[in-house]
Amino acid sequence: MVKIGVYIVWFVIGLYFGIGGYVALDIEKRKMQSKYLPENSVVFEEIEFRNIEAASVYDDEKKAHRFFGFILKSLPKNMIYLFTAMSFGILGVVTRITKQVAIDNEDIKAIEVYFFPVLGLMTGIIILAISQIIPNILINSSGSVEPMTLAFLSLIAGFCSKQFYEWLISASGSIFKK
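Below the sequence we write its predicted structure tokens.
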């Protein structure tokens, strides 16, 4: 019963910070994009905006503050990237644990529920670091990490965390040969 409680806590943490981080990063991306769209003034809620996209971003940001105010108000942008990557890494592991129970009919050991999400969290950090190393794949034209790419790769890496770390060790070994 404790395993289920811990599993639910990991799931909720991953979901809240993952979705919240994704929403925050997407809003920032759309703000930047709206600056490059043609100027066509629009008034929304008695505020004048540069164009309809800027007004839409403002409205979405206001709505997002209801659920994700902590993330949007409190965290600097670089921390949002970090929390998003870590959270989707956690969700990847939680998804794998769910698959093991629901599809594979496996019994899950307590250690898997307690520590594998931490492994997924660290995997998300590694994915974020890799996204800084391989900019041509993961970085958009404004110089920011693509939120969807970061979330997806962190989710997949968390899901395949055992295989990911085996690959990472193997790749590191070939790069750092003596």
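The first helix runs from residue 2 to 35.
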